[in-house]
Amino acid sequence: MKIEQNIKIQLNQTFPLTIKRLGINGEGVGYFKKQVVFVPGALPGEEVVVEATKINPKFAEAKIKKIRIKSPHRVQPLCPVYDVCGGCQLQHLHYAQQLKEKRDIVIQSLERHTKLAIDKLDIRETIGMQDPWGYRNKSSFQVGQKDGKVLAGLYGLNSHQLIDIDQCAVQHSQTNEATTKVKKILEELKIPIYNEKSRKGIVRTIVTRVGVQTGELQVVLITSQKELSKEDLIIAEIQKRLPNIKSIVQNVNGQKTSLIFGEETTALAGSEFIQETLGDLQFELSARTFFQLNPIQTVNLYNEVKKAAALSGKEKVVDAYCGVGTIGLWLADQAGEIRGMDIIPESIEDAKKNAKRHGFSNTKYVPGKAEEVLPKWVKKGWQPDVVVVDPPRTGLDNQLIQTILQVKPQKLIYVSCNPSTLAKDIQTLSSKYEVKYIQPVDMFPQTAHVECCSLLVLK
């Protein structure tokens, strides 16, 4: 038996595999001679023949050579560049089944990273969308050139090949239309397109954003330098071909970096921002304002936060990682006081403006890290009843977890975009908090991402 365990999969080896489940990145997971094998594009229940493409000490990666037994949930992807783009991972899986698999991804994370009795946990069915296409309100497409033709899209999966995307199936139709027309204008006016290798050329990226509820459109041209040749002509053509354009903006990024935006932003025509509404709230979105990419599901997610908070009008609520204040303002009409903090000072200024615009006087926003700000408030005798956290993919800062365990708010509502870090953090918090339930929400249909709203209460 011992010899058996030492047999390792060889590179380019072909072997049969039964897919047991989906991994956190949407790939099929199977086991060959007790080794984990990840297979992009394979679905649970399928029997496939695969070829090993990468060998790691703890797992192997492989590609499908042949599907022997197909999943009944396998469907034809809608997008023509689905295989090469890599922006979506689950278009080949029927949507109803995507929702089930996303719940399963949450369960797998809890099994892997916690000691909780998973079968006793209330992990709810994933809240999906009625129409799981065309939901993204913003696109950032790199610009390139090939044989005089201007391309705009994403770099292909594991390659530096720019995939020209005309109609992205998950993008709002107005953002698709705007990108296509701007690309055409740049081509017709022969505007120099930035080349990463030579670092010559001007236009690097086309960013488009639409207010889904308002229909207002913004186009941002990200350039390598301040001088934009034929600027007036570009503006005139954009305004002519996109009649509902509200905001044309230039952002300068001359750095050799994978970051999209540079520091300098100028409005070229129209307003600096567009308006968007979420429920009863209105927001002004400037080029660099972070805003949820799927406003329809954001309303569903924030309503889940409101349900979990179940406020009576008296509670002191902390909105950690508050950004421009969206979650806190969603709760403000039912709370005694909302206090938020964020490390980005501009976001705090926006949060203050947003609160003022909506007539809320029970809010307070300060720049800083939650783990540093919260203890100061508690020291001054301000004890929160509810803490809402919506951290980045890396999860909660350990210092913040320790702060929460010391401050002991009655309720902790954890909004997460990464089931693995959610599970790890829940395990640490479980010394004093009990998980009442976890509600998965599908913010990004056709991808492997899953958002969760979890309610934790003090034991």
From TrEMBL:
Residues binding S-adenosyl-L-methionine: Q292, Y321, D342, D390
Q: Name one GO molecular function term.
A: tRNA (uracil(54)-C5)-methyltransferase activity, S-adenosyl methionine-dependent
| InterPro entries tied to this protein | MeTrfase_TrmA_AS, MeTrfase_TrmA_CS, NA-bd_OB-fold, SAM-dependent_MTases_sf, TRAM_dom, U5_MeTrfase_fam
Tell me the Pfam families matching this sequence.
TRAM, tRNA_U5-meth_tr
- Tell me the domain of life: Bacteria
| Keyword Heme assigned | no
Q: Does the keyword Transferase apply?
A: yes
Domain named TRAM: residues: 8-66
List keywords of the entry alphabetically: Methyltransferase, S-adenosyl-L-methionine, Transferase
A single BP term in Gene Ontology: methylation
Q: Main EC class of this protein?
A: transferase
Q: List the Gene3D superfamilies.
A: 2.40.50.1070, Nucleic acid-binding proteins (2.40.50.140), Vaccinia Virus protein VP39 (3.40.50.150)
PROSITE patterns found in the cross-reference section: SAM_MT_RNA_M5U, TRAM, TRMA_1, TRMA_2
Q: What is its EC number?
A: 2.1.1.35
The catalytic site is made up of C417
Q: What does the similarity note say?
A: Belongs to the class I-like SAM-binding methyltransferase superfamily. RNA M5U methyltransferase family.
What is the name of this protein?
tRNA (Uracil-5-)-methyltransferase
Which organism is this entry from? Neobacillus ginsengisoli
Lineage, top ranks:
Bacteria, Bacillati, Bacillota, Bacilli, Bacillales
